[in-house]
Amino acid sequence: MTPTDPTPDDLSHGDMAAVSRPGRRDDDVATIDPGPAGPAGQSGTGQPHDTGDADPLAEVLGETPDEPGGAISVLRRALGASPQLVRGIRTTVGLALLSAGGKVAVPVLIQQVLDRGLLGPDGFRPGFVWSAVGIAAVVVLGVMVASRATYVRLVAIAESTLADLRERTFAHIHRLSIADLDETRRGVLTSRVTSDIETIARFAQWGAVAWIVNPVVIVVVLGVLALYAWQLTVVVVAVLVPMLPALRYLQRRQLAAYDRVRTQVGETLTAVSEAVMGAPVVRAYGLAQRTEGRLGAAIDRQYRAETRALRFVTGIFSMSDLFGGLVVGAVVFAGVTWGASWGLDAGSVVASIFLVTLIIGPITELNEVLDQTQTAVAGWRKVLDVLDTPPEVVDPEPGVELARGALSVEAVGVGFAYRGGPPVLVDIGLHIASGTSVAVVGETGSGKTTFAKLLVRLADPTTGELRIGGAPLGDVAADSRRARIRMVPQDGFLFDLTVGENVRLGRPGASDSDVLAAFDALDLQWWVDRLPAGLDTPAGERGEQLSVGERQLVALARAQLADPGLLILDEATSAVDPETEQALTSALVRLAEGRTTLSVAHRLSTAERAELILVFDGGRIVERGAHHELVAADGRYAELYRSWLGSTRDR
Question: What domains sit in the chain, N to C, each tagged with a CATH number?
């Protein structure tokens, strides 16, 4: 994990699950520059766009260089976000020029062999011919070496860049607020750091090489062809120019089609993720037909999007073949018909035909190059959309360090609303002395869990201020906050590691003895002894090889090892059996010793033992006090307590 990533105890079950809920569609993506906003005409990195000479790639792609949301705009922003891709570009272009020059040398040598070694006034000259063949062999070998060096260099730079891009995108997702995670589906975020970046990787490994090498080859070949026969150069250009408007049209349609493809890939991954993760529920409730129907619909939408995009690919492919054949035929016809009148000998005509075939190669590659480019642009746009989303919670540098020991909590006029939604918390004011045991109760939707999330700074209050240990929470250093404030989520989320490794996440670098000491401090050594492999017992994906209660025991041990000053328990005993609840209750009592604890609970047995109870209703604290005081007041808490007593007796 990076220093800015949330630790496991910072993540509640609600946050992990929220991203799988339907939210906004991802079809229309923002095109905000990734860096700080600059004046008009500047990119997000503050660098002015080049609005002077026309961009050759823009001409091929059919855009003005600064067309908002266009391929060139996206590529420029992508290069701004990944400057490693253009480092050493001069060396790469130099290698490409060397490779192009080598390819051109072969037709020149053919012309020399024909005109001076075979058909010249001196007739057949074997020495000259064999010398030319030897030179051609050396040139071909040089072209191979230069081409390989160009490819290896670009691939090495591309892979390094994309590895960094994956890490930065993943880290950025962890920095997003709970509102952003609530609005975006899990499959969509997964596709951003997997399939979308994979499309960029394929483009960087081959398409980028083609965009650098092929234009150089075309320019060099046309230049040499003009030296041999400018008339044939005019023929080549006259045949190829009508191809550009058609390419511009197909490119625009293809770009939009591939953007839809990337969107549908995210939708499909979301459907697959839900179908796999929810397999037990699907089987238990007989939802297989409904789930398969939903997944099938997502796959069908992706299939139709892919098919639509491939129509444009086949159009470009057919056009490349058509114009490639036309240009070769036109050069052969013109050379044979008018070559003599233009002063061209046989060697020059044959060399010109070979040179034209060198142009046809890049043209026939144009289909695949454009295909990869469009896919990569669509994928890059999606990734940049994630990176463009500004984190709402920004950690200070260097920040305030929280003191050791129990921490006080103070809220002054705290209010919070999820983006575009009604207020969830309204004018929360309270002071919790250090070392106090607090229970937060209220009906579902009353705002109690949201308040707990604000305390671990998964989001910042919309209004007001939170103070921890006397310091504004927004001024506390990230590392200090994560070390001194810990949340135990309601399902005890675990990673696919061993039990010991999951506990050790609370304090990286801790020894097995430290981990065992944490279990022992909570009187849970007996449970570790019952595990098949002790601390080395695998927890499984999301801890599913353990029961809900056992995952909670591991989460409590992790919190004990971290030794926080403020401990937040999010309904830590709401989904376990009575026997495990007894073990958890005992562990919670031990864990709370010497710390400030805030427990969010539906089971009011926790509230009975708390020193202070906060009753939330409609986003406000409507009552506060000890258990016996609130029961005697016969208010909202007494009503909740009577309802809870009735439900427990009914069992």
Answer: 8-23+68-388 (1.20.1560.10), 409-648 (3.40.50.300)
